[in-house]
């Protein structure tokens, strides 16, 4: 009887502890592609017409041309603001994923900026190898996640 009660208590404790499912490489890849479609649409529907309305050149002649800077701002603003306010981008929403802090705390501005700007820049720097870390790490963390102490989980 005592053993049975202990077993029932253990099951009750296990039922209250949420099971964390880390998002793997391919789920995150498809969510990212969806996000790129969203960002491309924003640029084509808002940024480029705005440049035409102001009679500014929308040709990318250099990395620092006005249109290149504007589209880069759109790209980073999308990822930073969506991650900070919703813990997920539209792509992650579609695939049921969200960014989580490994310390079970809310994402701070510093964490989001390190993850989305600094960490992703480093992850992309050498042939996108930092993103491949997702496929091989225990908690499915990319290099940018490891820098910011975050991971991506299934909701």
From TrEMBL:
InterPro entries: Pra-immunoreactive, RDD. Pfam families: RDD. The keyword ATP-binding does not apply. Residues 22-148 form the RDD domain. One of its GO terms (cellular component) is plasma membrane. It is found in: Cell membrane. Its main location: membrane. The chain crosses the membrane at residues 29-51, 63-81, 117-136. It is a multi-pass membrane protein. Keywords: Cell membrane, Membrane, Transmembrane, Transmembrane helix. The keyword Cell division does not apply. This is RDD family protein. It comes from Anoxybacteroides rupiense. The lineage of its organism: Bacteria, Bacillati, Bacillota, Bacilli, Bacillales.
